[in-house]
Known about the structure:
The chain is of the alpha+beta class and 163 residues long. Helix content is 47%, strand content 11%. It has 7 helices and 4 strands, in the order ααααβααβββα. It has helices at residues 8-20, 28-39, 44-54, 58-67, 87-91, 94-105, 147-159, and strands at residues 79-84, 118-123, 135-137, 140-142. Strands 2-1-3-4 form a 4-stranded mixed beta sheet, with helices on one face. A hairpin with a 2-residue loop joins β3 (135-137) and β4. It is elongated. It starts with 7 loop residues before the first helix and ends with a helix. The relative contact order is 0.11.
Amino acid sequence: MAPELLSPQKLEEFQKRLNRSEHPRELVIDLLRAIQEKYGWVPDEGVVLTASLLGLSPLQVEEIATFYDKIFRQPVGRRVIHVCDSICCWSRGSEGIVRHLQDRLGIALGETTADGSFTLLPTCCLGACGQAPAMMIGFTLYGHLDAQKIDAILAAERTGGTP
């Protein structure tokens, strides 16, 4: 059983937004992200809660939740690393970036480190072609990556500092 997915204040806030909305479906991502912020990922109960609040079926919410790779439908590490594998990043060496991250973290794509610090995921595009190769941790974008820069970023992320 999932703990409380949204605080009473958050539920009230979303209810007010819902009452003002002509298209409740537009709140799906915001609701799923709010649940994810509190819980770390979106359990089935979060999909059901979102569907119930918006008057949608759980399947409709599930379709949206699984389309966006920034919505996590299973537990992830405290920090999720999205490595861009678009054509721009690939042509600028993202395969080497992935190998370096896998070596440093001791995990493969789709896995979480044993201490729960990092989850490593590929993503289809970060929209940072001018900074290729790129990755994102949380909401922070890192570009023009190389092995040394990655090591500095990982060290900073582990300690809460900046690279």
